[in-house]
Amino acid sequence: MKKTLLSVLAFAAISLAACKKNNHDVVVTPPVTYPDMAEANDPAVLFTTAGGVKVYNGGFGSAVAADPNDPNVFYLLTDRGPNVAGTIANSIILGKSDFTPAIGKFRLKDGKLYLEQTINLKNAAGANLNGLPNPVGQGNSGETPYDLNGAVLLQVPMASTRRVWYLPQTAHSG
């Protein structure tokens, strides 16, 4: 009985020692305080209009996701590029018809977002996507796209059966 009791006590002591927490291995992440608003640092100029107005690539933010491994890193989706509603019903004027929607990796530092990486959205064949409305029968928003000169822009279908539906900010979401 003594031998069994000693064996049980020895096993219990070893088990308890193995469960002891080692405070040297604990990493405490300090809480992150986010600003009420953060602006992009030095956004790229897409183009300058004839009247001298600069159009910036500051359209990141249509969607946002926090990096689960770094509280200061965020992934932001652009909208479909600079655009305004046209004067004709269901028309949209695209300031840069070859704009490629992208995901930007941003780091928050001192209340500003710094763009670290840009990931262009592409189709399955590797071609850049654009901000044009989808063709009729393929998720079309009902808009007719025009360029800055008033010419109707051709809506080209994606050349793949694998699709990512990138819903423009003007389409109804439900």
From TrEMBL:
Domain of life of the source: Bacteria
Residues making up the signal peptide according to the UniProt record: 1-17
Keyword annotations of the record: Signal
Name the record gives this protein: Uncharacterized protein
Source organism of the structure: Mucilaginibacter lutimaris
